[in-house]
Structure formats: structure tokens, C-alpha cells
Amino acid sequence: MQFDQSLLDTLKNAGHVCVFTGAGVSAESGIPTFRDALVGLWARFDPAALATREAFKRDPALVWGWYEWRRMLVCNARSNAAHRAIAELSTIVPKLTLVTQNVDDLHERAGSFEVIHLHGSLNKPRCFACARFAVDPLPPPDEPIHGRHLEPPRCSHCGGKLRPGVVWFGESLPTEPLAQSFAAAKDCDVLLSVGTSGVVEPAAQIPDIAWRAGATVVHINPDAKCVRNAREFWLDGRASDVLPQLLKKGFKSEKVL
Ligand code: OAD
Questions:
Q1: Which of 67, 73, 80, 69 is nearest to 29 (CA)?
Q2: Higher pLDDT, 19 or 138
Q3: Alpha carbon of 14 to those of 72, 87, 206: distances in Å?
Q4: DSSP string, 164-207
Q5: Kindly report the CA angle at 27 between 24 and 32, in degrees rounded to 5?
């Protein structure tokens, strides 16, 4: 892949890199995205029936079973070259902030630390009644059968039903992670937006915040759009192909004097 020379020069001199990831970064680990035609989760399932508070109130076993199926997919998956390139990048640049919309733990399993999870985590359920996070870790998920009803476990504090620890439609994002993400976007020199459709607010603002604060914004996505602005690049390709090359040709190559 050929990269713009001005982009490579910018990468070489970056002090603070913010990496903002979406479902596309885990796609090659076999985790379905949300909005890709046919295979995306929201092309196959109704979010109103599975990813809202009302859905859980109506049928907690359906919702818990669906998220257990997703947790099973993640448990059986492995991180891919894109997750690993991002973990490696944190050892190369002076400062890296990793912000993800993903509820899987594939960044952590690839070696990234201090991952900011904007939309929560499949592994951190909390109580639907008292909102406390579960103390005990979830056991490994059972059979990977979607559509199966599973009764949610109970909260050890109040006996309420545990709900998946993810942000549902109509809910606010966790305050501190959102503030940290916006602050990193304002502060960074380079923002890499990897594998996201960029349509879900408020996370979708992150590349724009970075761009308006003067950063160079690089989108990595096989569904590339045209360049709209100066300091904005669209790299057309899969994250696991593009990121390792970007590391080699940009961040890792000799510093510009
Ligand atoms: P989407 O499914 O909306 O977008 C995934 C993006 O990844 C698309 O733009 C694809 O073109 C791109 N893509 C697919 N394969 C790729 C690959 N191998 N390499 C790079 N890019 C690839 O997923 P998100 O943008 O993450 O919210 O969706 C945002 C939020 O919407 C999710 O966090 C979820 C969902 O509702 C919650 O769960 C709260």
C-alpha cells in the first residue's frame, strides 16, 4: 500500500497518538460488526428487542442469552494483527491513548493496557436493580447457541437480576471514560479511527474533536470515503493489513530530523 509522504512525516513526529476503534478492528477475529450488510448484528437482529432497558424488562432471559452468545464468540476468538499492531504502537510513540467502542477484550488480550471502553464490556455485568457491578467474574460462557433463553444470574448484594455491562440504546455513556476520550482527542497530534462507521453519538464526535483541535485524522476502513479536509486521510483496507504497514512505514521508520 502506498501512503502519502506528508502523512508518513506526520506519523514519524507524533507525540500523542489517540487510537479510536470500532467493530471493524475485531471483524477479522470473527466477531460480527453491527452495520455491515447481511453479516452485521443489526442487519440480523432487532436492537429494540435486545439492546434496550425495555427489552431486558420484557424478556431478561432472551437478552441475557443473546449477550452470552456474543460473549461465547469473543471467548473463542483471538486477537488479530490489527489489535497487535495497536499494542505495539504504544511501545513506539511517546504517548498513546486507546479508546474503543467495542465490548470485547481483544485489545487487552493483544497486550494493550488502560483501554478506555466507551460502551462497556461483556465481561462486567451489573445489577439491573441496584446498578452495582458484579463482584464475582462470570464463568466461561456455555454453548454458543443464539436465540437460547438464559436466566440472568442474581446480584450478590440485592438479589436483583444481573444485566450485561454494556451501554444500551437510550443510555448515557460512562462519564469518566467519555471525558478522558474527549480530552485525549483534543490533546493528540494524530488520531487513528479504525473500523468504525462513525454514526453512533457521542463517540462519533471523537475524530471531529481531534481534527478541530489541529490533529491529523486517519480513517482505516475498507469502506473508504473521499477525503473531505486537509489533515484528513482515508486508508482503504482491512485494519489487519493497513495498521502493520502504517507502523512499519510511518511510526517505526527513522525519525525526521
Ligand atoms: P459498525 O458495524 O457500525 O461499523 C463497522 C465498520 O467497520 C464499518 O464502517 C466497516 O466498513 C468497517 N470494517 C469492516 N471490516 C473491517 C476491517 N477488517 N477492517 C477495518 N474496518 C472494517 O460498528 P461500530 O462503528 O463499532 O454500540 O458501531 C458503533 C456502535 O454501534 C457499537 O459500539 C455498538 C453499535 O450499536 C453499542 O453496543 C452501545
A1: 80
A2: 19
A3: 38, 16, 18
A4: -SBPPTTPPPPHHHHHHHHHHHHH-SEEEEES----STTGGGHH
A5: 100
pLDDT-derived band at 231, boundaries 50, 70, 90:
very high
d(CA 257, CA 252): 14
Question: Pairing relation of β-strands 16-21 and 95-100?
Answer: parallel
3-state SS assignment for residue 120 = strand
C-alpha cell, 74: 469473543
pLDDT score for 212: 97
119 is catalytic: yes
Task: From the candidates 16, 119, 146, 149, give the one annotated as an active-site residue.
Answer: 119
What pLDDT sits at residue 257? 42
In angstroms, the CA 255 to CA 257 distance is 6
Closest Cα to atom 15, ligand 1: which residue? 24
Centroid of ligand 1 to alpha carbon of 255 (angstroms): 33
* DSSP conformation class of 161: B
pTM of the predicted protein model: 0.96
Q: How open is the CA angle 236-209-255, to the nearest 5 degrees?
A: 60
35-67: pLDDT as tens digits? 988 789 998 889 999 999 999 999 999 999 999
**What pLDDT, on a 0 to 100 scale, did the predictor assign at position 146?**
64
Ligand 1, pocket residues at CB < 6 Å:
22-24, 27-28, 33-36, 40, 101, 119, 166-167, 195-197, 200, 220-223, 238-239
